[in-house]
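Following up on my earlier thread - several people asked me to post the actual chain instead of describing it. Fair enough. Here it is, all 636 residues.
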Amino acid sequence: MSALGAFTFVLHSHLPYARLAGRWPHGEEWIHEAAVETYIPLLQALYDLKEEGVQYKLTVGITPILAEQLADADVLRNLDLYIEDKLERATHDLERFSQPSMGRRGKYTDDDEEEDDFDDDFDDDDDFDDDFEDDDLDDDFDDDFEDDDDFDDDEEELFNRQRPPAEAAPLPWWERHRPEAIALAQYYQNFFEGTQRALTVRFKGDLIGAFRQLQDEGYIEIVTSAATHGYLPLLGTDSAITGQMATGVRSYRRHFGRDPRGVWLPECAYRPAFYTDDKKIRFGIEKFVAEQGLTVFFTETHLVTGGQPVGMAAGEVLGAYGAPKRRYVIPINVVEGSGTTFQPYWVANSAKRQSKANSGVAVIARNNRLGMQVWSASTGYPGDGAYREFHRKDDVSGLQYWRVTGHEVDLGAKELWHPDWAAEKVDQHARHFCGMVEEELAAYHDATGEFGLIACNYDTELFGHWWFEGVAWLKQVLRTLAATPRIALTTASEFIAQHPPQELINLPEGSWGSGGAHFMWDNEDTHWMWEPIHDAEMRMQCLADKYGDTGDPILTAVLNQAARELLLMEASDWPFLVTTGQARQYAVQRFSQHSERFYELTRGLERHEPNAAYAAELWEMDKVYPDLDFHDWCSR
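Reply from S.P.:
Thanks for posting it. Predicted structure:
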């Protein structure tokens, strides 16, 4: 039986730059937490499938800044310490839960969240938040901490948090030598031991190498992104966009040993060409994608399906500091008809007003119906009562022992988690999802006679971190779909190569953020960030032009470090965290640090006094993109 259509997961893996950035709750532990709960379990699942002989395929995005950190020796050494700490906590819980009915307990930390302090963070999230309400999942790092700006580079403080002296108090009812609690502590002990063994033995301490091997063997396609996840539509110069893209591609080649073919635009944010106030053309994002030899990117549903443009794309002014309507080279209403998420499209060169020129870059939009089966906590799988509850944590160890129980159930009333119950739900939900995939592709084929594609785009960290059972669900879905003759598993660029787009589309401006526009990154709380960013981008361009022919290694090193600080300053994470209120002070401090470092370096260059010692000191702090080239910031 021949396949009716194709399917690919598109998993977007990204975390902010946090190397040696301090202790809990912010900083490098973001990376360790995601590695332990998401990246290592995902790799184990994919290698298990490979060893079973399952011929699966999927698309995995790893942003360059994440790849740099996962390959960093200091980050990996600290990851070992983090796992040891988690294992110690599970072991301590096992001893504690095995005690008689009365005992002593301590507080996990003074900064720990109140049990009833959780919010519906998807309402403020950048990912599909306009599609639903009242969700109680969050995919933005960790909502447990908002106001801590204490980051300390002391390794002992970073990874060995001391518990305060225990206070005399009766053990809560659920800890009193209950077999269920003891079994859960044993579960976690086994989980962390298995994770430690996978990291050190199965993957030999090389997570990036493990992903690379899967790509080399044809199981996954790894797509790249902009270097530090800079929000491309709002960058002030074309050279700034080129610097983000070229640095990201160069990093990809170094880590994965080949040229990338696909790219995840940060926040799925796209902007067509437009006229500046002095009547010059700013090129559309597709031009910068094509210049790097990339062939496909991904976008939000409404940019392709013909939904009404929103926010900036509709010429709205957003908030008190909104930007004026752009004067697009090709008016937005030129988009002809409604597209479909079942087919890719060639993106028109939006700088060519008089002709429909093909940019040579394809776009794939996410399937909304299937996407929401996972994204929505209220109507999707992760909100099922049997799955582990993310928000309630033990106040001694910080481990999570409860299940969702119900949407209306207060955190204090959550019931104990039963992993075996959750495993049954994983099987049910995997079968349901695979049935929906087949149903959607069959319906599209019956209606059009076309071989369709379903792309389901998710943040990778949703699986394992926010939805603990999500990795097991992914594994079961891939196993089932690989055995379904009517569905062909594929990757993004493979589908484009085998089924080239038949139509051209003029995409409107937008993102997958709130309202489909740029509000999450440029609003009255964050607009102050963009003036120094744009000023720094122009300064970098001027310096790159001025010293473009230099052969002086000192000048080159200082210019490269200035560009490195600019990239880190441009990260979309900082305004996003300010907007959501999650880790606001941390984001402001990181943004300000990179801004101050950039200006200190460039002031020296402008005085013809390049500070090589300072640049070398900053390199030791940042240690990303060793092959960065400041020439990428030269004007065109």
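The two ends are 53 Å apart (CA to CA). That should answer part of your original question.
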